[in-house]
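#help-structures

NK: newbie question. if I give both the sequence and a SMILES, will the prediction place the ligand too? trying with S-adenosylmethionine
OV: yes, paste both and it writes out the complex. here, I ran yours:
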Amino acid sequence: MSHEGDLYDDRHIAFLERLWGEGYLSPGGRDEIARTLAGLDLSGKTVVDIGCGAGGVTVELARSFGAGRVIGLDVEEPVCAAARRRVAKAGLADRVEIRKVEPGPLPLPDASVDMVFSKDSIVHIHDKDFLAREAFRVLRPGGWFAASDWLISHDGEPTPAMKTYLAAEDLDFGMASPDRYRKALAGAGFVDVEMENRNPFFRVAMREDLARLEGPERAEFDKLLSPPEIDRQIRTWKTMIPVLDSGEHCPHLFRARKPG
Ligand SMILES: C[S@@+](CC[C@H](N)C(=O)[O-])C[C@H]1O[C@@H](n2cnc3c(N)ncnc32)[C@H](O)[C@@H]1O
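OV: that's the protein plus ligand as structure tokens.
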């Protein structure tokens, strides 16, 4: 990783929360969680949330989707601290646990959870085969891996526009194609793999974000980071929209079941 320190420090958490809602470091809020989970019953189930960030998603899984127990995992301390505050504020400390972990194997026993969930975080985990094997290992038979993630449409060399975007984003992304995900999931033993391309949603949402960053709210964003940093964010959004429009940047929802 080229960065020193946390990618998601307190200032960036505050910036992203203003953009995407309290506790959220990704777009779409509760609606995107609901879409990822559509038709899956979490009532009383044990869920692990990989890359829990500031905890908005993690809390929601317990509060409105009925999970009995949620274990939020993240590799950075500031987001874990923010998530713990959010859990305490929601009065859910008895059901939701936040753990700071090292990148690598999931710190969970075999067949110990009913669902592996993740929202827009596993883009940071480059080895998708390893990720799929780990998700499969910790799931109980019959359990689901349900996630949203930021994907690239192909396995070849990224186009110059995509390279420009990835350099602007500078978040140590390891994007995979839908095909690579399907192979990783099937290779780990998952069945019933379904994927949904969320590019159309992102094309709209990212334009709305850009309009806010450049519009009357700009002064409020400037207070959370700094004017040069907001300029940099605007440049990132402006490099992202063309690769969304071309379809090369194609966030997806996916789900897969462990047989059992
Ligand atoms: C874009 S944020 C999304 C956070 C949250 N899921 C949400 O939607 O608000 C990505 C998160 O992934 C975390 N992350 C990065 N590498 C990770 C890894 N190897 N394991 C778990 N989390 C990781 C980051 O620290 C960050 O909190």
